[in-house]
Amino acid sequence: MNGSLRVHGATLRVCGATLHHEVRGEGPPLLLIPGGTGGAASLEAVAADLAAEYTVVTYDPRGLGRSPLDDPEAEQRVAEHADDALRLLDLLAPGEPARVFGSSSGAIVALHLLTAHQERLERVVAHEPPVVEVLPDAAVHRALVARVRETFRTEGLMPAMAVFAAGLSKDGEQADRKDGESADRKDGEPANPPSEPPEPPEPPEPAELRLAQQAAARPEQTMAGLPFFVGRIVPGFMSYVPDVDRLAALSDRLVLAAGQDSRGELPYRPAAYLAERFGAELVHFPGGHTGLTTHPVAFAELLRKILRA
User: Fold this and answer.
1) CATH superfamily placement of domain 7-135+240-308
2) What does pTM read for this prediction?
3) DSSP E strand boundaries for the chain
4) Which pLDDT value is given to residue 206?
């Protein structure tokens, strides 16, 4: 990591928002799209490492951190966030094909950017995009999003985060299916009793909350973004339906990735499903869903190799 590289911070006016972005390094253009609430701060370590050979742009997505919305109540759409990313690419390298990395909700943005503006992209790395609508059991996860939204409305932030965390975890996914099976039974119809009562699971830790906690820079900013994330990003992004046929046609420039510690968790499954459908390798990065903050050096090393390929 080269900590001596100068970081240039600036703002960019886009439709309905002002984007704070940071540029570091020299070389081919590379846009890093953050997930969760971490914004540019969550990518600082990886960006500083990659800036030794790329011109790296990071930013706070609209509505988060230092990128205020003109209308704080505006609903969030993936296509609008992808247009923001395109505007940053046009500012960074007008007309030049670029490399893009996105994580989590940022990976959803990267997928849409590829399908809508493939001529501007040389390679896209999508790390655990939670595009649950591509999964065979999408209805289960659609119900999860509805529960998160309703819990946030009626009970507040932390209960909604607990519901969200349970749905993302290995145990939570099984519980969601059991809930669905219970709903399908007729009134009074008994469930098959387990041979032994199951031990209550440990309360899972929300992946995106971990991201907020682990971002060493500006922790107040990341925590402050949680209401916006739960109330606007989760329902707006997890209901997004990607153009799978278009992605398949562009799979030669798409790298689908997941955390090596994420197997069995919900954010892992869409990337694995799409990679299998496209006949492509699923690349495993160190750590779990938030590996870029927990293992930044190893994460950047592998990302560099992928971008060079």
Assistant:
1) Alpha/Beta hydrolase fold, catalytic domain (3.40.50.1820)
2) 0.85
3) 7-14, 17-24, 29-33, 55-59, 98-103, 121-127, 254-259, 282-285
4) 44
